[in-house]
Amino acid sequence: MIRDLDTTFVRTFVTAAEKASMTGAANALNLTQGAVSQQIKRLEEVLGQTLFERDRRGLKLTRSGERLLDKGRRLLQLNDEIIAEMGGKAVAGQVRIGVPYDLVGTLLQPVLKTYAEACPQVEISLVCASSPELAAALTAGTIDLAVIEERAGPTAGECLLVDRLVWVGARGGLARLKRPLPVSMVADTCAFRPEVLAALSGHGLDWRTVFENGNIDATTATVRSDLAVTTWLASTVPADLDILSDADLPALPNFAINLHLPKHGVEPAAREFARHIRERLAWRPVAA
Question: Is 0.70 topped by the overall pTM?
């Protein structure tokens, strides 16, 4: 009979599941890979269930593991809230969070919601800008942490996930066939812009700018109206738009969503938000 679950083992399991890697979990938890393996093995013994299978991409959850993941996250959240509140260590203060326009209403929205619920005494200030602008703001100290989109590869931050940069157009639209290609970008400082222009140039494809003023809603409107195509991360594409796969459009590189914190003096509210991102944001391998 199962009497209780060690939250340490559950936290290790959740981290390994989100990272899809024992090594990734070990790095995140400051443990050895052997310690992570032992804790997960002990949890499997307690539950009498196999939680992971291995494939070429790393760890893959079994059905039992999938059932445990959501409940494990909720258990850890409740555990952390109880410790913080009953121990008189509730996080308070202010935190200034920098997020790119395309992520704030998609991947980061549930993170912001759960953080606000878990830390009601924290005053959250949300700063939306392009990734290069957010990096500059973090260096200048005008924000406390930033989620930044960068071409996949070595980073000074912490990689949260890697996603495909894709061409996006209106469903059944014709803008993708026009030459010069009408392209709508959120801003001239957009992190995607240099890679997109390099891809177009390398493909020998003429293009023209339709819209760029920093407003994600206006960019979306030009694409929905079939006035232009744009580029977004695959996970952020609205359901009513199409990811374009025509051979006429050049291939685009993968991009990473990276978490950046100040090099010195991370405040408790920022540190807690960083933990929330790690625990709530789905970790996924590079999309094929």
Answer: no
